[in-house]
Design goal:
about 350 residues; alpha/beta; Four Helix Bundle (Hemerythrin (Met), subunit A); Rossmann fold; 2 domains; five-stranded parallel sheet; 15 helices; about 60% helix; disordered N terminus
Length: about 350
């Protein structure tokens, strides 16, 4: 009987955790509301808006990052929660007018409830991430399990291309940049190449794409994964694609920058992702693609500035492309896809005609 009680405890805890986790749309709505409420309440007390200006700017940047990854991931939730709590602590220390406006009182109450809800999500996210690392789903196959089950098969005459990678891919709204194309997004925020390797069957091969465009490696660098290990993982991913007759498009790792660290110290990216290591991996990728007959998609050269950093206007945090960044990337990706997929289809058709 004891083990039944333990099982019930674990089931109850898991249920509570699932309820605490916010869906992507609910998370975006909560983050936006928190920013709105901080701006509104900052006007309720003399001097508060001036004192809170740096935190308010941080909160706006946090929300931009939430929109980039399109959900409340662990890192963006932590940043948003830290700044929202910092704002409340500052607001508590500022002298309020008497009588205090009733509307202001309601807004502060709503803000505290919203921050409390965000904290519940954050704690549940930590527990979920820890459980994932300890458990059987290290590679987060659950993320796209439902979508994979309902994904329609490829349509004749409409090449399917699977975009694979981390948060830069995850946050890319492909339908907006590539309308009427059969492009499938299977990026997961925060992932490294070893985790992507573990998802290949379910998230790539099963979809029978004609090509896979992979953009990966920046998180490996940030976590200290050896360059040789990154190369091995990318090689095995490419081997699997080749075996299953999926064309490979290897995208260069994007440059990073510290251009926005004055806005937020967390936006100092070059310490964790040294530009020299990024260049080393890109050089290897270009040579590897040439040797194996894969397409090398060079985002790097179009996005780097004269100092060797990601152009300031292409990212708001020095790492994740903003809309301007994706507008640079999209046509480059399309050219690479055309060269890889469309050219292959033309060759196949010519071969069939010659056989006749």
């Amino acid at each position: 009987m004891k083990w039944i009680g333990l099982l019930l405890c674990f089931s109850t805890a898991a249920f509570a955790q699932n309820r605490a986790l916010l869906s992507a749309p609910d998370g975006l709505a909560l983050a936006e509301r928190i920013v709105q409420l901080t701006e509104a309440t900052s006007l309720t007390a003399p001097g508060l808006v001036r004192a809170a200006t740096p935190i308010l700017e941080n909160l706006k940047e946090d929300f931009k990052n939430v929109r980039v990854v399109n959900r409340l991931s662990l890192s963006v939730t932590q940043a948003l929660l830290t700044d929202a709590k910092g704002y409340l602590a500052l607001a508590d220390g500022v002298r309020k007018p008497f009588p205090f406006p009733e509307e202001g009182r309601k807004q502060f109450a709503e803000l505290r409830d919203a921050v409390s809800r965000l904290e519940s999500h954050f704690q549940a996210l930590i527990e979920s991430t820890e459980a994932q690392l300890r458990g059987a789903d290290r590679d987060n196959l659950r993320r796209y399990a439902e979508a994979n089950g309902t994904q329609a098969g490829p349509v004749s005459g409409k090449p399917r291309v699977l975009f694979y990678g981390d948060s830069i891919t995850d946050g890319w709204r492909l339908n907006e940049y590539f309308p009427e194309r059969d492009y499938v997004n299977r990026g997961i925020s925060g992932q490294i190449t070893g985790e992507m390797l573990g998802r290949m069957q379910a998230d790539v091969i099963a979809h029978r794409p004609q090509a896979m465009l992979i953009l990966a490696g920046t998180n490996d660098i940030a976590r200290g994964v050896a360059v040789g290990t990154i190369q091995n993982n990318l090689t095995m991913i490419a081997d699997l694609c080749e075996f299953h007759k999926i064309k490979v498009i290897l995208a260069s790792i994007l440059p990073v920058s510290d251009h926005h660290k004055a806005v937020n110290p967390r936006f100092e990216m070059t310490k964790g992702r040294p530009p020299a290591v990024i260049r080393e991996l890109n050089t290897w990728m270009a040579a590897f693609a040439k040797k194996r007959g894969f397409t090398y998609l060079n985002y790097y050269d179009s996005m780097v500035d004269s100092g060797g950093f990601l152009k300031a206007e292409l990212a708001d945090d020095g790492l994740h492309p903003n809309s301007a960044g994706y507008r640079v990337m999209a046509p480059l990706a399309q050219v690479a896809i055309d060269e890889t997929v469309v050219a292959t289809i033309s060759q196949q058709k010519s071969g069939k005609k010659r056989q006749k």
